[in-house]
Design goal:
Elements lengths: L1 H23 L4 H23 L9 H24 L2 H8 L4 H9 L6 H17 L8 H24 L6 H28 L15 H23 L3 H8 L2 H13 L5 H19 L1
Helix pairs in contact: 1-3, 1-9, 1-10, 1-11, 2-8, 2-9, 3-4, 3-7, 3-8, 4-6, 4-7, 4-11, 5-7, 5-10, 6-12, 8-9, 9-10
Length: 285
């Protein structure tokens, strides 16, 4: 079950990242984050009311609140990096955040077997290779790398926090709702501050109404990925769930190849193959 839900997480996050990266090339990153997360929050609110999730309120929601504060920073940095550089380069850099939940798993006493250790090494290597690597000089490229690494740390922290935010399905809905409300509040304040400094909140043509379905997809796919990851982490080793969930850059790179015709170099194809091998080793372990 852990492998299944973690792989579902990588698929959802990979598609959400691809959609977010495309949208950020048309609208400010803050606007993409706030609008997409607002839609996800509204849907989650309905689910919480329908399932009676309020009854699950408790101290664990502080983990969801913390994840909600960290998440927007990570997403904004990540989307800006995607807008500046090739998706196949930026996305794998963000997977370095997997070190955070893996470290948490080690602190909690998890000790993977030899097959799983090999799987972790092969999968992470594959993800990194799937992104290129490509090196280009110039200030923009350095900014892209910095933004990607900041987002990696943030995503890793969200991985660790959301896994601790609930223990039941209805509690998970409530935790995700709290996380998203916090996301929207933090992102909204950042957007307001950005506008006050003179940055545009909307593209030149006004609100991109035609992109509303895509914005909804990005928000809902992201929140669904958080949910599937939480289930994966609760039903198996955290480090295994985290590594399998971190395969999302392979999905992003393949989506960029399929929809944007970004070339998949030989080293990227090799990386995707290694990621698959690592996945099989983790599942077998």
């Amino acid at each position: 079950m852990t492998a299944l839900f973690a792989l579902a997480t990588s698929l959802l996050w990979g598609l959400a990242d691809f959609g977010g990266g495309v949208l950020t090339r048309r609208a400010p990153a803050l606007t993409v984050v706030v609008v997409s997360q607002t839609i996800a929050t509204a849907v989650l609110g309905v689910i919480v009311v329908a399932t009676g999730g309020w009854s699950e309120a408790g101290p664990r929601l502080w983990f969801a609140f913390a994840a909600g504060l960290v998440g927007p920073v990570a997403m904004i940095c990540f989307y800006k990096a995607l807008a500046l550089g090739p998706m196949g380069v930026v996305s794998p850099l963000a997977t370095l955040g997997v070190a955070v939940p893996v470290g948490v798993g080690l602190v909690l006493g998890e000790r993977p077997g030899l097959v799983q250790v090999a799987g972790i090494g092969v999968a992470v290597t594959g993800v990194v290779l799937a992104g290129g690597p490509q090196r280009r000089g110039g200030g923009v490229q350095r900014q892209t790398v910095v933004l990607s690494l900041v987002s990696a740390l943030g995503f890793g922290a969200v991985f660790a926090l959301i896994a601790e935010a609930s223990t039941t399905v209805t509690g998970l809905f409530l935790a995700l709702f709290v996380q998203r409300v916090t996301n929207v509040a933090a992102g909204g304040l950042a957007l307001y501050a950005s506008v006050r400094r003179g940055a545009p909140a909307l593209p030149a043509g006004g609100f991109p109404w035609a992109s509303l379905p895509a914005l909804a997809f990005v928000g809902l796919a992201d929140v669904a990925a958080n949910g599937t990851y939480s289930v994966a982490a609760q039903h198996g080793p955290v480090m295994v769930a985290a590594v399998l969930a971190s395969l999302y850059p392979v999905v992003t790179a393949l989506a960029a190849r399929g929809f944007l015709s970004e070339r998949l170099r030989a080293i990227q194809a090799t990386g995707a193959g290694l990621a698959l091998v690592g996945t099989l080793l983790l599942a077998a372990g």
